[in-house]
Request: fold
Amino acid sequence: MSDVAPTSHARGSPSRSPAEGSVLVAGAAQAGEDATAISPRRLMWLRFRRHRLALVSGAFLIVLYTLAAFCEFISPYGTVTRNDDAINAPPMRVHFFDAEGEFHLRPFVYAYQMEVDPETWIRIYTEDTSRRFPIRFFARGEPYKMWNLFEMDRHLFTVDEGGYIHLFGTDPLGRDMFSRVFYGGRVSLSIGIVGVVLTIVLGILLGGLAGYLGGLVDRAVNKMIEVLQCLPSLPLWMALSATLPVHWSPLLVYFGITIILSLFGWTSLARQVRGRFLALREEDFVMAARLMGADTPRVITKHMLPSFSSHIIATATLAVPGMILGETALSFLGIGLRPPVVSWGVLMFQAQNPLVIELTPWQMLPGLFVVLTVMAFNLLGDGLRDAADPYSTAGTQ
Reply:
C-alpha cells in the first residue's frame, strides 16, 4: 500500500518520450520552476501556452462572452427599439474628420439622408454632412434592466437625444443590428455552454457506469449509443423541435431546444469515458481504493475521473460549436427559437431571401459571428487536446 506507482497512474502521467520531456523541462525552466515538482495541470498549461492560435482563440472567446454577458450595457438600444428614419439602413462610419477636413477629438457619425430610387423603389442612404452626432461614452441613454434585475441607463456608447447611431446598420423594421447581434449572442453562446454541461453529465454518467460495471449495463448503454448515432441528427432535431408547444414561453422553448441538443450530443463522450474506465478499473490504484472500502461513487469521482479530466475539458470545448450550430440551424429553419427571443439563428432567419442578402448584406453579420465563434472554439479545443495528450507533439511546434 506504500508503493507510489499507483499515484502516478491515478494522475494519468504515462511515460513520456525524451523529446517531450525535454520540451516540458525547457518550459518549466523558462517559468523558473522545478520540472520534477510540477503538477500535471501545470504541465498541461506549459504545453497549452505554446499553442498560440489556441491562446488567441481563448482570449477572443473570453471577450465575446463578456460582451454577451453585459449586452444591455454594450448595446446603445434595446432589441425592439425602432428608428423610422433608418429602415434597412447600412452601417454607419465613425469619423474624426468632418466634411471640411477639421479634426474632432470626439468621434462622431453623420445622420442618414434617404432617397428612393424612382425605378426600383429601393431606399438609398447617404451621409448628411449637415447633421453630426458626437459619440458619447459611458453616457446616459435608453433605460434598461441589467440581467432583468437592475434598472440602469448607462451605455458603453450612445449619442445625444435626437440623434442615432447604427454601427451594424438596421433591419427591415429599423431596429439596430449591433444591439440585436450582441443580445442574440447571449442566447446562442449560453445554449452552447448549458448544452455541453448536460452533455458532459450524461456522457460521464452513462459511459462511466458502462465501463465500470460492465455486463448488462455496458451492453444496454452501447446499444443506446449505437441507435442514437445511427439516426440523422438534423432531421431528428427538426422533428423534436416541431413538437414543442406553440404556447410555450420563450424561456421554456430555450430550455427545450437545449435539452434536445444535449440528448444527442453525449454519445461520443460516453464511448470515450467507457473505454477509459474499462482500462482503469483493473489498475492497481483502483483495486487499492476498493480494498480500502471506497464505494463505487467515490472510486469513480475521486480516483478515475481526475485521471483524464483534462481530456474531458478538451472534448467539451470541441462540443460547444456543435451546440451553437444546432441552435442556429433550427432557428434559421424557423423551428427553433422564435421571436421575440433574439439569437443568431433567429437573426439569420431574416436573411433567407437572396434579394435581402443582395440589397442588405449587413443582415448576414450574425452569420459572421457564428463562423468566428465556431473557429475559435475549434482552435481552442485543438490546443487543449494537444496539451492534454502526453504523446502529442502538435502543441510544441
Observations:
- The chain is about 55% helix and 15% strand.
- The longest helix spans residues 177-213.
- The beta strands are 95-97, 103-116, 123-146, 150-159.
- Residues 155 and 348 are 26 Å apart (CA to CA).
